[in-house]
Design brief:
The protein has about 325 residues and is of the alpha/beta class. The protein has three domains: about 5-50, no CATH class; about 60-160 and about 295-325, Rossmann fold; about 165-295, Rossmann fold (3-Layer(aba) Sandwich). It is about 45% helix and about 15% strand. It has helices at about 5-10, 15-25, 30-45, 50-60, 75-90, 105-115, 130-140, 165-175, 190-205, 225-235, 250-260, 295-310; strands spanning about 65-70, 95-100, 120-125, 145, 155-160, 180-185, 215-220, 245, 270-275, 290, 315-320, 325. Strand 6, helix 9 (about 190-205) and strand 7 (about 215-220) form a beta-alpha-beta unit. Helix 1 (about 5-10) packs across helix 2 (about 15-25). The chain is elongated. The protein starts with a helix and ends in a 6-residue tail after the last strand.
């Protein structure tokens, strides 16, 4: 039979209000002897606090929703690990949802997490996010965006990386190494990440007096399969290129695999540079040169920021983290 605070109050010969104050550490005027007695009886009776009942009173569950678009992409588990570690440190729990980059699933999970009374939500939006603005605004929950940006009133925080600069630096590095005909294979331009990386790519070409060729830009998905498909298009068209800048490492790794199948050597025949620096990028042959994002830190900082907002320490803030190039063997 479940032990209640009434059982503890009876055994300690005190009121239920006193037991509640002791268990919640609310009233320092209660004597040390009474406090010790209540805690001793609660332990002996193996009392388990009803956190749901408590949350109905406090309107706080110490639970954060984390919505990510593609858990099969190694970028996002690393981000989730950083978020979980910070949540554990601060005494919060994470409720995780994977949308498979579906706006419909994203809407479903946003509503579900609100029903579960999470205190706030950390969100990386679906690439296909049409229609979710109204859902987000209706939630009346503080939201921290991570990786992909948008403008809404209840977006209280953002943890982003400068994607323009990351792409600019990556393409500039290729140009400095002597490459001039650089293709760009990327994810959907409906995301701010792809838009900003495209701008960085274009600006790097412009600053180095290289004409932009739209036929060398390939928009698709942030998935490995798109790396295969885009490479096959490039080979089929026999495009005159000497390097490929990829929107993420999953694309880049599959570009390298497809080139190898077609007896094209990397970096001898084509240089490849990726984006993200996921763990497997250094395990392939040749190891992938890539633009590193501080993925774990992004997740950690997002939870830290949301908790500060929830606890009234700050109202709103944007954190922008820096990227850097990790040089390996896919560029000569």
């Amino acid at each position: 039979m479940k032990v209640t605070i009434k059982d503890i109050a009876k055994a300690a010969d005190v009121s239920t209000a006193t037991v509640s104050k002791v268990l919640n550490n609310k009233d320092q005027r209660i004597s040390a002897e009474t406090r010790a007695l209540v805690l001793k009886i609660a332990k002996e009776k193996k009392y388990i606090r009803n956190s749901m009942a408590r949350s109905l009173v406090t309107r706080k569950t110490n639970t954060i929703g984390l919505i990510l678009p593609d858990i099969t992409n190694p970028f996002f588990p690393e981000l989730a690990r950083g978020a979980e570690d910070k949540a554990n440190e601060a005494g919060y729990m994470i409720m995780f949802a994977n949308t498979d980059d579906s706006a419909e699933k994203e809407t479903k999970y946003l509503n579900m997490l609100a029903e579960k009374m999470v205190d706030g939500i950390i969100l990386t939006q679906s690439a296909h996010k049409e229609g979710n603005a109204k859902t987000l605004e209706a939630l009346k929950l503080p939201i921290v965006l991570i990786d992909r940006d948008m403008a809404l009133d209840n977006i209280k925080g953002r943890v982003l990386v400068d994607n323009f600069k990351g792409a600019y630096d990556g393409v500039t590095y290729l140009i400095e190494k002597g490459y001039k005909k650089i293709a760009f294979i990327t994810g959907p331009f409906s995301t701010t990440t792809s838009k900003d990386r495209l701008k960085g790519y274009e600006k790097a070409l412009e600053d180095n007096n290289i004409s932009l060729d739209d036929t060398l830009i390939f928009e698709g998905e942030y998935k490995g399969q798109w790396g295969i498909e885009a490479t096959e298009i490039i080979l089929e068209k026999n495009l005159d290129i000497d390097a490929i800048f990829c929107g993420n490492d999953l694309i880049a790794i599959n570009v390298i695999k497809t080139l190898k199948k077609n007896n094209i050597e990397v970096p001898k025949d084509l240089a490849i540079i990726g984006y993200d620096n996921i763990m497997i990028s250094e395990m392939i042959e040749p190891a992938l040169t890539t633009v590193n994002q501080p993925v774990y830190e992004m997740g950690y900082k997002a939870v830290e920021l949301l908790i500060n907002i929830l606890e009234g320490n700050i109202h709103e803030k944007t954190i922008q983290l820096e990227s850097n190039i990790v040089i390996r063997g896919s560029v000569k």
